[in-house]
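Bench notes, bay 3.
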Amino acid sequence: MRNKRQVITAQTIATLLVFVFLVPVLYTILSSFKEMAELFSTTPTFFPKKWSFANYIHVLSSGNYLRYILNSLIVATTSTIIAIVINTMSGYALAKFKFKGSTVIMIVILSTIMLPLEIFMAPIFKIITFFGMYDSLWAIIIPPAATPTGIFLMRQYLLTIPDDIICSARIDGASEWKIFTKIIIPNAKPAIATLAIFSFMWRWNDYIWPLISIFSPEKYTLQLAIANLTGEFGTDYTSALAISVFSMIPMLIIFILFQKQFIQGTVESGMKG
C-alpha cells in the first residue's frame, strides 16, 4: 500500500508538472487562430470564439518565411550531422583510448561548460571573418559543430560499452574504423539520438549568434524573422503567434521520433564515470 501511494503521488505530481508546462504552449497554439480583436479583448478567452486561419495565410503569403524556415532547417540539420560525427569520435577517443594527457584534455573540455557563450563570441567572430564566412550560413553551422556538452555526453555513454568487445574485435583483425562503424555507432544509438535532439534544438532556437554573424535578410533564420516582427511602433502579434507555431513543429517531430532513444541515452550516459 505504501508503494502504491508513492506511485500515485509521483504520477499526480508528474501530471501537474505536464499541465503547467503545456498550458503556455496550448495557449500559444490556440491564440494563433484568433483574430486581433479577440486576442486583445478585455475578457480574454482560452479557446477561440471564432476559429480563423487568416494568420497562417498572411504569414505564408507575405514576407519570406518559407525561405527563413528553409535556412533554419539547413543550419540545424547540417550542424547536427557534423556535431554527431565530431562529438562521437571525440567521445570514443576519450572513453576507450588511454594516452598521456587524456585526463587533462577532458578537464579542459569540461571547464569550458562553465564559461558563458558571450566570452567566446568575439574570438569566434574574428575567426569566421578571417575565413570569409561572415554573413553566410556556414558562420552559424561551423562554430557550434563540436560542443563540450556533446563530447561529455558521448564519452559517458561509451564508457558503458565493455572494453572486451573492442579487444575481441582487434584480436580478430578489425581495423579501428571498422570497430567504430560496426561496434561503437550501433551500440551508441541512444546517445547519438540524444545528441541529435539537443543539437537540433540548440541550432533551431539559436538567436544571439545568427544575429551577430548574419546581416543579409535573405539569409535570416526563422528566429531572426520572428524577432523582426517587433518594430519601433508595435508588434505584429498574430503573425508572431502563427510563425511561432510553425517553429514548434520540427522539434516536436524530432522528439516524437527519437523519444525512446533520448530517454535511454540520457539515463545510461550518467551510469558510469
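Next record in the batch:
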Amino acid sequence: MSHAITHEESLDQFSEQIEFVLNTYTPHNLDLNKYSNILLGGLGGSGIGAKIAADFMQSSLSVPTQLISDYNLPAYVSEKTLIILSSYSGNTEETLSLLAQAEEKHCDIVAITAGGKLLDACKQNGYKTYSIELGFQPRMTLGYSLSTLFLIFGELAGVDFTADLQQVMKDLLNKEALKQKAKTIIKAFKGFENDKYVTICDGKTFAAGTRFCQQLQENAKAEGFLSILPENNHNMIESYYGAHKTNFILFNSGTNNRVNKRFGFIKELLVKNNNRVFDLSFNDFSVSEIYKAIYILDWVSVYLTDERGEDNMLIPNIIDLKGFLSN
C-alpha cells in the first residue's frame, strides 16, 4: 500500500470487505453436534464481530457461546470445545495465549487473521483459517470478521447468510443516505461534542452498542459508555434526575414488548429533564439492519473526530502501552 488507508476510505469501501468474504469463504465442514460449547477469542475491533454474530445466533445455536477478551480460557474448556480466534494482526498477545491453551486442551481451532504468529501457527498445524486483506487499521476491518463469522455460525446452525450479506452490499450502495443519518446524529449533539456519550441498548443490541463505544473511544477520543435494559431500570435510572452533561443514544432492537415499554419510559424521562436524546432504535432487527446501524455509527465516530479536533488514525496511548508491556 502506498499510504495508510484512512477510516473514511475504509468505510467508503466497506461493501468490498463483504464481497471479499463472499468470494473467498470456504466451508469448514464442522459438525455442531460434536461440541458442548463454542468459545470466541478476540479483543477490540477483532473481538467485537464475534460477539455481534454470536448474540444474533443465540436462537439458532444449540450450544452456548462465549467471547473471551482476556489471557485465559475457562476451566470447563475441553476437546469438545470449538475455539474461534480473531486477530487482525495475528500478534495480539492475549489471543495467542488463548491459542496455546486451546492446543493444550486439544480443542478444534478456527482462526480469522491477516497474518502474524496466529497465521503461522495455523499453517503449521493445519487449522482452518480465514484471511483478511492487509493495509487497514484493525478496528476498520469489521466487514471482514463479522461477515466471516456469520458464515461460520450459519454453517454450524444450517443457516445460509449469503443472501443476507448480499442484501447488505445492496444497502450500502445507498451509503450517502447512511452518512447523512450519521450527520443528523452529530447535529443533534452540536455544541456538546465534548460531553460523554451513553448508549442505552438491550440484549440484542449490546454487542453493536459496544462497537460504537469502542469507535468513539479509539477514533474520536471521546468517553463512550453502555447501559443495558432492563438492568438499567433497576439501578442507573435513579441517576436520571435533571440534565446531564451527556449525549444519550437509544439503541433498541424492538424484539421484546416489555423492553420496548421500558425504552419509551426512559426516553420520556430523559427528555422531560432536558437531556439530549437521539433514538436510533430498530424497526426491523435483521442482519442487514445491524450492518446499517454499525455503518452509521462508525461514521458518527469519524465525523465526531473532526468536530473534536482529533486525529482518528493516531492511538498514542495504545502504542505507549504496547511499548511498556514489551519491556
